[in-house]
Amino acid sequence: MKENERITNAFVSFIYGDILAVNERNKSLKEKIKVGSKQYSYASELFLILSKSLVDNKKLYEVIVDNNRLCAELDLWKYYITEKASNISNRINIGVNYYNNQEYWDCKIGSGFSSVILFALANKNYSVAQRAAYGQILIFNRHPQVVIAGLLLVRTTHLLLENSEITQLELSERLKDFLIHLQLSDLENEFLSELPNSYRVSFEREKISFILEIGSIHHNNLTEKKIMTGKNKFLEAIYFYWELVENGEIHVDYVDSEASLEISAIAHTLYALNNKLTFEEAHENINWKFVKEMSAYINKLRHFHVGKKRYIPCKQNIDLFSLQVGDRVKHRLLNLCKIVEKRVVKHEGETETLITVECKSGMYELKQ
After folding, report:
1. pTM of the prediction?
2. How many separate domains does the chain show?
C-alpha cells in the first residue's frame, strides 16, 4: 500500500476497532456502556476531537495541537451524551483544578491515552510526534506508567510505518532500546525541577517494569480480573496486533471493562498500517464519509498541504439548548448546523434537555 492509503486505513480502523469492542461488550454485559446512536465510545470521540484540533506548520516541519481549538472542543464535549471515563469527565468538568486532584497523579488506568496514536499518523518527524504526544497525555493523565505507555504507542506506530516487515522480536528489541534511552529530563526540559523526586523515581521504576515485560509480550489472563492499567492495555493491544497479523481477526468479548475499547482500537489501527482491513460499513448511524474525509485531512496535514490557521476563541457562544427544532445556526465548531430534535426529560429527579444536532460531520446528541 502507498503511505496515504496506510494512514487512511489506520485512521478509519481506529473507529472500527472501537465499535467492535463496544458491540461485543454490550452483548455480554447487563450494564451497557452509553454510546448514543453513533455506536462508538469516548475513545473515538476523543480521537476525532483531537484530529480536528491539529494544525500544520511547514516552516517548523510539525503537526501539533492547537490548544485553543482543543479547549473549545472539550467544552462542547462535556455535553455529548456518550459515557466518558472518570479522568476525562473530571478534566472536562473541573477544568484546570483537575491537575491538583490525586486522580490525575495517581491513576494508572490511563483512559484516553490511545488517541496519541494520531501524532504518529500526522507527523513524519518522530521527535515532533513524541513531543506532541507527551503534551496530549498530560491533559488527562500524569502517572508515569500511562505516560510511558502512550509514548511507546507512538513509537510502535512510527516503527510499523517505517518498516512493514518488522518481526515481533525486532519490534520488542526496538521498543526496549527506546525505553533504555528515554529520559524524563528530555521530556520536561526546564520544568523537570518542578516535579517531586518521588515522581522521577517512579518514572524510572516504570521504565524498568516495561523493559522486563515488553520482551515477552503475552496475553494477560483477564479472567483473573486484573486491573487494566496503562501498561497492561498497551501490552494487550500489542498482543492482539500480532494475533491480527497471524489470524486476521480477534475477539475481545471476554474483556468486561472499558479497557477493551482502547485495546481493540489500537490493535486494529496498528494492523491496518500494513494490512488491508476489510470491514462492513453496516453501522448506519456512523458517518463513514466524514471519518474518511478526516483521514484524508490527516494525510494533508502530514504533507503540510493545509496551512491551517489557529483557532481564535469566540466570546459570544451560541447556546444550542435555547434553540428550537428546525432552527439553523452557524456554530463556532460545528459550523452550519440544524436542531432536528429536542426533548426535556426527568432523570433521577432532575430535568435534562436533550437535543440532536445535524451538521456536515454527522448527528450529535447533546445533553444539558
Report:
1. 0.91
2. 2
